[in-house]
Structures are given as structure tokens and as C-alpha cells.
Amino acid sequence: MSTEDRLVGDDGRPLRRGPDDRPPVALSRDVVFELLSCRRRRLALYHLVDAESPVDFDDLVSRIVDWETGSLAPPRDHERTVSTALHHRHLPRLAEAGVVRYDADAGEIHYRPSPRLEESLADQRDDDLP
To answer: Whole-prediction pTM value?
Structure first.
């Protein structure tokens, strides 16, 4: 059994592997805080963590728009604003950190598990989601 097969989290439970069977992403506390510093990026991560990988880009945009607007009609061009922010800022930053693989041509986002990120994200969930 290799070392990677025995990876466990701080709680002693085995860590889940990403969709490409690579071990979970190890992030420093500083990187986790930086990634979670933006509410829209946290919303994207809630959906990516909960959904089956890969996630369709348009589905992610729709989900974030729903969460941001609740029962109200979205402001004009809000969907385009969310789409642009995800495409140009948030998904590239998550990809740079190794948490996602974003294929813009296919419109797919593949999430790679990160126990430290998911633990910190869970602490914010009740405050962020309706």
C-alpha cells in the first residue's frame, strides 16, 4: 500500500480522492483564507463540492444567480456579470490553487477535494446560503 492510499484527514478519516483519482489538494491556511475571502467564490465552491464532477459552467452560473437573488428577479445583466467574474477571476484563481480544473472550451469545471478548504467552507455555509 502506497503512502497516498493511506492519506487521512485531521479527524483520522480517509481523505476522498478527486475525479481523476489524484490525492486531495493540500492547501496552506493562508491560501484557504484567500480563496474563501470572496462570497461569490464561496458560492461557487458550495456548488462544486456538493455536485457531481464535472459541473457545467452555465449550471454553476445559474445556481449562483439563484443564491444571490433569492426569490427576487435578478437585476438586468446579473447573469452576465456572474459569468464574467467566474470565467475571468474566480475559476482561474481556484485552478491556480489546484482546487479545480476549468475547461472553458467544454464549459466544464472539475473539482478536486481539499479537506482543509472544505472544513473552512462548511463553517461559513449557514451565513452565506439562504
So the answer is: 0.81
